Amino acid sequence: MKTEIYCEECIISTKERRGLGTKLSPVRVVQQVFAKDGELLGELDPSPETFALYYLIHFTTFCMENKVKAPDKEDVIRWLDSIKNKS
Predict the structure, then answer these.
(1) Which residues contact 59 (CB under 8 A, 6 or more apart)?
(2) Taking the domains of the chain in order of start, what are their residue ranges?
(3) Closest Cα partner for 45 from 6, 21, 14?
(4) pLDDT given for residue 85 in this prediction
(5) Is the sign of the CA dihedral 44, 48, 53, 59 positive or negative?
(6) Is 58 within 8 Å of 68 (Cβ atoms)?
(7) Rounded Cα–Cα distance for residues 51 and 79 (Å)
(8) In whole angstroms, what is the distance from residue 2 CA to residue 39 CA?
(9) For residue range 34-82, what is the model confidence (pLDDT) as tens digits?
(10) 23-27 contacts, C-beta under 8 A, 24 or more apart
(11) What is the pLDDT of residue 20?
(12) 9 falls in which pLDDT band (50, 70, 90)?
């Protein structure tokens, strides 16, 4: 298998802050890579996996505190409302 590598004349890497600084939207640093012509080639946002696990732990804690044994859609809505009221 032959691997081909292409190099751009100039690639610009930047860091950008994202998030509002709340529980639902924590501030994080996203690294972006652009081609010379300004085209976004890719970015690394640490949010998806990290915060998915955090939300799972938070929802589980909510269910335990509220003695929810078989969560349904209404329980998810109550949990989301509880987060919104805290931030």
Answers:
(1) 71, 76, 79
(2) 1-45, 47-87
(3) 14
(4) 66
(5) positive
(6) no
(7) 16
(8) 27
(9) 877 888 777 777 765 556 666 777 778 888 888 888 888 888 888 878 8
(10) 23/83, 23/86, 23/87, 24/83, 24/84, 24/87, 26/51
(11) 83
(12) low
Rounded to two decimals, the pTM is: 0.41
Instruction: Show the tokens assigned to 18.
Output: 């994202």
- Give the chain as a DSSP string: --------S--EEEEEEE--SSSSS--EEEEEEE-TTS-EEEEE-SHHHHHHHHHHHHHHHHHHHTT-SS--HHHHHHHHHHHHHH-
pLDDT at position 56: 73
Instruction: Report residue 83 as tokens.
Output: 């987060």
Of the two residues 26 and 47, the one the predictor is more confident about is 26
Give the C-alpha separation, 16 to 45, whole Å. 10
CA trace torsion 58, 52, 47, 65 (10° rounding): 0
